[in-house]
Amino acid sequence: MTIFEYTFTRRRIAESPAVVRSPSDTLPVLRDLIGDRETERLAVLWLDTKHHVIGSEVVYVGNVSASLVRVGELFRGAVRVNATAIIVAHNHPSGDPTPSPDDMHLTAQVLAAGRLLDIELLDHLILGEEGTFTSLRDRGIPFDR
Description:
Elements: H1 3-15, H2 27-34, E1 41-47, E2 53-61, H3 71-80, E3 85-91, H4 101-117, E4 120-127, E5 133-135
Parallel strand pairs: 3-4
Antiparallel strand pairs: 1-2, 1-3, 4-5
Helix pairs in contact: 3-4
């Protein structure tokens, strides 16, 4: 991450809502990090106990159709900043935010790892084109602890 990207991201985080109450609250930050890209990107937002965004990181950049993710990498930054919750998000370069079986599998793995680390997965968001997105929590995926 360059100094410009770091400063821009910090400014966007500072402009983010006081508390994340819904997936749409995170979209301005996520659009800057991963939206409208030609390759798939996966990012993590780190949240404190009151669900304030305290940081973010683009964890992986894949190709036009996939991103290979090692679940442990998703939690590295969260552990470092003592986050109590995370939101995982990635884009679909195709523009269609419909979750794939791989997306569902990743969500299950992140939930399991988060339980071990006592870091809650609040949601897994998939960004599509022109402001469209899918929240796996809103689609009824069980996120209860």
